[in-house]
Amino acid sequence: MTSQACSDKAHLMDFSLIEKAADLLVRAKHAVVLTGAGISTESGVPDFRSPGGIWERYDPTLFFYARFIAEPDVVWKCLIEMNTSGAMSLWDAKPNKGHQALSAMEHMGIIKVVITQNIDNLHQKAGSRNVIEFHGNMLVFKCLKCGRTYGYEQLLEIIAGCACLPPLCECGGVLKPDAVFFGEAIPQGALKESFQHAQDCDLMLVIGTSAQIEPAASLPIVAKGMHSMFRGLGNLVPKGDCHVIEINREPTPLSNEVSDFLIQGSAGEILSCITDMVREKRP
Ligand code: APR
């Protein structure tokens, strides 16, 4: 799609803001991206808090760590139902043009890293190499007893082998999806690396997140050099200029408070337009 084709879609999105975002990205020295469930809705994976979202259809208390430890069979039954009913078929989802645009901008050297709250592996499937999985990955399964990990195909074999739930490791331990459940710690490496990028970046693209869940919601605040409840994460030093650009169908708590501007509309359309413009503008 050329920027001409983008401008033909100006009624769908604010073209001048798209141009501004492309200019800032081309000039950025350390551009990072924070994504949420909104970038995957165009792949048929519903988000959590929009009307018809996952938390309207499934009981979020099922995804507390303590609940999984207490009733792994109940939680597994729900997970399998989510995937087989198509309500949230993470396991077969395909990346969309939003994921592909970010992968293209990484390959052009425009963006350094994608910090994702998503557990769907779609950035990696789109070819992104530097992806920080802030909330883990739902396509990897870890034994709670010996720590051994299994891939999705191996899990399917285990489930096919014995219809009983929860699926078990060879050591007899319970397998848990390697995604961060509520009440579970963010992987230390992902936490430190993400806050360091937020500290060092001069541009952060915030895409498809309602910015309500901590500590991820603090990353744009740190990027902006504003105070954050996570000051304890290493010594935060005053920051130089950093642009925070939001892409979302609707405003979030960051809009007009933390982000410089919001480009309202569908992430896939907007990101492909920005990427085409970056391709044309970069030296
Ligand atoms: N294009 C742009 N924005 C979109 C699109 C789209 N196609 N689809 C949805 N959105 C926006 C919604 O307007 C909303 O602001 O994406 C956001 C999704 O918000 P949430 O459902 O709250 O998802 P997220 O912010 O990623 O949730 C954070 O909460 O439930 C936990 O662990 C889970 O990682 C998740 C975390």
Describe this structure in words.
With 283 residues, the protein is of the alpha/beta class. The protein has 11 helices and 9 strands. The strands form 2 sheets. It has a 6-stranded parallel sheet, sandwiched between helices. Strands 5-4-6 form a 3-stranded antiparallel sheet. The chain is elongated, with a radius of gyration of 19 Å. The two termini are 19 Å apart. The relative contact order is 0.19. Mean pLDDT is 91; it is low at 228-236. Residues 36-38, 41-42, 47-50, 53, 117, 135, 208-210, 212-213, 248-250, 252, 266-267 line the site of adenosine-5-diphosphoribose.
* Average pLDDT reading: 91
Strand order of the largest sheet: 3-2-1-7-8-9
Bound molecules: adenosine-5-diphosphoribose
Proportion of residues in helical segments: 25-40%
DSSP helical segment count: 11
Q: What amount of the residues lies in strands?
A: 15-25%
Cα radius of gyration in angstroms: 19 Å
What's the end-to-end separation, in Å? 19 Å
Overall body shape:
elongated
Tell me the structural class: alpha/beta
Element-level helix/strand string? HHEHHHHEHEEEHEHEHEEH
For the secondary structure, the number of strands is 9
The major sheet is characterized as: 6 strands, parallel
Give the uncertain stretches in residue-range form. 228-236
